Amino acid sequence: MTYIWTHPSGKQKAELVAEARKLALDIGDKVVPSLKDYSAYFKGDWNAWATSIPRRQNTTTGKPLYQGVLLTQQVLGKATAQIVNAGLLAGLPVRWWDGKVLIEIGSVRTTDPNNWQAGWEAMPKTPESAEDDESAADFKLNDDPFADLFEPDLF
Question: Per the confidence metrics, is the pTM higher than 0.85?
Answer without folding.
Answer: no
